[in-house]
Description:
By secondary structure, the protein is α+β, with helices and mostly antiparallel strands. It has helices at residues 55-67, 132-135, 140-157; strands at residues 9-20, 25-31, 42-43, 46-49, 77-85, 96-106, 120-127. It is 22% helix and 33% strand. β1 and β2 (25-31) form a beta hairpin. It is globular and about 50 Å long.
Amino acid sequence: MSNFLKEEKIIISAKLLIYDRDQENFLIIQRSLNHKHNPGLWELPGGKITPSELIRVGLSREVMEETNLLTNLEDADIVTLDSRKIIDQNSSYNGFVINLLAAFINQSLDLNNIQLSHEHTDKQLIKINSNSWQKQELTPETKLILEYFLDNIMENSYN
Length: 159
């Protein structure tokens, strides 16, 4: 048997938590009911980064596509929160390794400036220090990112 490493199919999924420090809220967007992944659930803006893109460039592109917001990720905190192989014969990503990255920035937010793509149907600003975000039907990735932000980033960088 060979000891050579098998080539893995890797997907990098990156999400951006845009935190408005002055208003103490952040943006979530609701996925369309027609979307095949997490229909109707709320999430942070972001998406798949193509292999030829720098992470900050790809994440800025995804946020722009989904919300029409310009973001400056030059000084963003970026962390890897999850890396797992999908083992699901019914999934189009069966056998892929999914890496979940999260980026965090402070930026003022105004719902009137946000124009959603066809993939999303609604938008909300949620107070970070309230429990209201825990009552939302969030994607598992969004819950993971919010918990990480509250436990590790907010106390150190945003207070």
